[in-house]
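Example 3.2
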Amino acid sequence: MDTQAQDRYPLAAYFIAAALAAAVAGGAYFGYRQQVQTRRDVQASIRTWYEGPRLTAELMMERYVVPDEFTPVDANWYGRGSWKRISIQGDTPYQYLEQAVGYRARPEEAARLIDFDHGVRYDAPNEELSASSNHESLNYLALNLADEVAAGKRSSRKARDFYASTARLSASGKSSPYLQGLLFNPYRRMSQMDLSRKYPIKL
């Protein structure tokens, strides 16, 4: 065997060992991800979260079972009920609940949403309209008003005033259709419709 060939064998052995180590590590990682997807493990992990997001995550698991994605600081559900995406951030007590629906807006409609704010964000590439707050009812309110603003039915200023007055009513124990559900039909691809049938909302 020539010297050049002998030099290649230790190098080949090194790469084989590195590949095996990576495979073992990868298996351990994916095993961990699979393990924490049980409800008991998720509940154990969110004990260190702020109370608001922890209780909200418990509520979402009651409705939609365990999240599709979970890390020690957040949880995500996809295609549940009316929602394209539900995200809960466990490491903050503020605006920890983000909920998104499928939405298509023309450029002029999207431009109207910029001045509305109230945690509303339109993601054109992903065809997604989302709202962030501490309560699902306030997300319904923000999204319903955002749809009216985008459609030109209400100005941003009037929508902000309506949001403030309706949020005060909610805090006093009163309700409104704007707080109870979506007043418009979200845009849905077929895959989203399939997921919604598989995971219907539980009230």
